[in-house]
Target: dolichol kinase
Amino acid sequence: PVLVESLVVFAIVLSVHGVVWDRFSWCALALALQAFYVQFKWDWLLQGGGAVFQFRGAANSGLLPASMVIPLLGIVMKERCRAAGIVYFERFGVVVASTGMLLALFLSVLAVGITKPVPTNTCILTGMAGSVIIYTMKHSLAVSEVIEVLEVLLIFVYLSMILLYLLPRCFTPGEALLVLGGVSFVLNQLIKRSLNVVEGKGDPIDFFLLVAVVGVVLLGLFFTVLFIFMDSGTWISSMFFHMMTAVLGLGVIMPWLYRLIHRNPLLWLLQFLFQTQTRLYLLVYWTFLAASACGVVFYQNAKRSSESKKHQASTITRKYFHFIVVATYVPGLIYDRQLLYVAAVLCLAVFIFLEYVRYFRIKPFGQTLRHLLSLFLDERDSGPLILTHIYLLLGMSLPVWLFPRSCAPKGTLSGAGALVPYSGVLAVGVGDTIASVFGSTMGEIKWPGTKKTFEGTMTAIFAQIIAVALILIFDSSVNLNSSYAWILASVSLVSLLEAYTTQIDNLLLPLYLQIMFMA
Model:
């Protein structure tokens, strides 16, 4: 399975660079080759228990697929913005690609360094790849951009040491690279923009995303350290938790956002949410869907209580939430993407806050949340945190958040790029859901070395093609310009990756489909 997963990733890398070829292509290929070799060292360390931190079990390291995501995103963003003539975001894409390569290279060097005996051939290959990447960065980045890349690397190192120690078995090395690398980049961007505020410059919804992500992460770090010294399950601790959340929210996060957008954040948010009648209808509709999701949770728990044996939610039951999320995102993508952008940020903040309440057993809802959500656990939730629902939200939202609006003059990209905001809906909401449902109910021919079925994968590809046709019918802004063969190849490769990867597919698949569409 690891070899097939690697072949699929290599096919995606070669496909992207067959369309977008520049000096960074050599770096990406060198990075992919060395990551392929180093991931076996990580797998050996994970199996032998010598990986320094405790990573998620029942999965390989995932170094190769994770290592290529951020560099490829940066490269395709750079090319799209260069074609649109937006120099600022073209340089931003170069910084993203360079940062992703350096973070992946650091994780590779870490694995090689702690492997005993030292793998000579892998060391040589990693050194050669590092030399190519550093040489290219030297001739491509300005001094300020080099400093920015090194800042992100420094934040990543410290954040990794803290969070991987505090949260054992929550991530594989690849997932840690994606999640912590993304948080490190967001934190650095927020610091950079806070120090260089220009009134009237920058979209408030972008600042809202940066502040919300950094705010909830800092909130979690603060309470994690605090509850080392006190019992989090008492009423006094719970009251202190709610009080300090209000203090940090109103005393730090709100003023920080005010400095960036130069207006009252709460008034801006209320005005934004209720600006048009369409937004009001969407908010009412989403409220109904949220109530439906809560109803599914309560119904399944009532069903568990009425049965004598231990009841666990089936795969099909868990996929109900995928259907609800698709029903949430598609109207937002068609009618008001900016509202969907902000609503997704709010939902992410609420999800993470509720996970803090559950994890720390904050009264009065902490223990109740533990009981309700334990029904939906699977083998990927082996650590102290339950992250699968947060990954589902991220997988659907990241294509919306990462869509290069400034490089799309009419609000949409040409060709397959017009489907970029729909990457999460197609890969996770449609493809992964249909593959799981049909594979578990009617699948008979299993892919070698996996539990996934051939029927599930083929049905997923077919369902995504039908979904693309429906998007063309209902969303007038999408114009594919006869790029149907590329869309079919993109969907097929990502569906094959879903069949073989042991990483969190809710996070990985939308990003790869977005990369293919943007290329």
In short: The radius of gyration is 22 Å. The mean pLDDT is 87. The chain has 19 helices and no strands.
